[in-house]
Amino acid sequence: MKIEQIYTGCLAQGAYYIVSENEAAIIDPLREVKPYLERLEKDNVSLKYIFETHFHADFVSGHLDLSKNTNAPIVYGPTAEPNFEAIIAEDQQIFEIGKIKIKALHTPGHTMESTTYLLIDENGVETAIFTGDTLFLGDVGRPDLAQKATNMTQEDLAGILYDSLQTKIMPLDDNITVYPAHGAGSACGKNMQKETVDILGNQKKTNYALNQPDKESFVREVLDGLSAPPKYFGMNVALNKGGYESLETVLDKALTPINVADFEKYAEETGALILDTRSPVEFQKGFVPNAINIGLKGDFAPWVGNLIVDVKHPILLITDVGTEEEVVTRLSRVGFDNVGGYLEGGFSSWKDSGKEIDEVKRISPEEFAAQFNKDSKVIDVRKFTEYAAEHIDNAYNKPLDAISDWVKDIDDSEHFFIHCAGGYRSMIAASILNSHGIRNFTEIEGGYNGIKKTEKFPTTDFVCQSKTL
Fold first, then answer.
1. Which pTM value belongs to this model?
2. Domain that holds residue 178
3. Would the CA dihedral through 161, 58, 432, 312 be positive or negative?
């Protein structure tokens, strides 16, 4: 028997490839299925089942393309109602792969179809659980995503999750290995550990959610501090449940080079969003007017999902030459398939054509220290928790993921500085502000990490009062 965790850092997502004898199973596959097909061919095994722990919200799964390429059936847990052919497992149903067995344990709460898969090895020993978003390392799945679909409150769902954990997970042996669908950095939980594999006994000791004295405490603690889910989550659920175009079709359309003239015409005629995936350093030096910068070398796909409201909105790409396929693939993972093409030759071709170029004013932390005074206005776009831990005295906290709400409150007649932790998020914010016609600001390279090294700025513990722009 072989178990391989295939972890994708940019989504903090774990898929699983399991082999016994000449058969295999894959759990929660990513959308691009080529790596799985290559493993199957290399191991000379056939794919018997594709298991889905639930309808994922944070990424588009590869179940449909994988089934099409292998003829393996897709398996969901009880109550699932996909718009395509699938096996809907019963609670406790057994599936055989080679000499091992996988038992479906219905564990609703994160979603109502959520299912944990228990692996029983060749000797009949319960060896591992693939918990999806039911149980993470250090946390449990957020219970607020299925409210509309179930007409339940998040308190109701949290209570159901508590029952699932107590009746299906906690009675299992402490030596069982826990393989979750996500790790630290995922928006599917709030308190995940950096590790991606653990034993259940350790989680029983260290996971706050598994150490609550009763259901009431569990519900309160799990819901406490839960931020709003990213806007694209609902759209991804719809794609995973209803179906989508194959990745090959998406790539064929999106990997179309477009010359400068046609690129400009396409943007004007369709209202396409121009997405520039170069680094903040390169973007700052010059960019196509109204382009939005979300750098590929960062949490690219999650930020696209957070900030671009409609997955169906047309997109045009400006990339570092040679990264086009990676960009399109990572966009497809979160359901953004409507890419019309990319600027041939990258930004250099636009620059060489003599077209208008825009810039963001960026300064170093040392320059900021020299320019800062008691009347300076500073906007910190880090998360609330980052700001609460440490921040420039009197800075305004305006998290990037809420920029569509607070951008309308900006007074462009008053200059302000803007920063994040290291410069990635603040350049995204700068590009969005710029696209709204807001230009009277200066972005700080290196962010707060650089600012605090200047030893000029007092920091303050968070005070429970809000500042308005």
1. 0.90
2. 2-234
3. negative
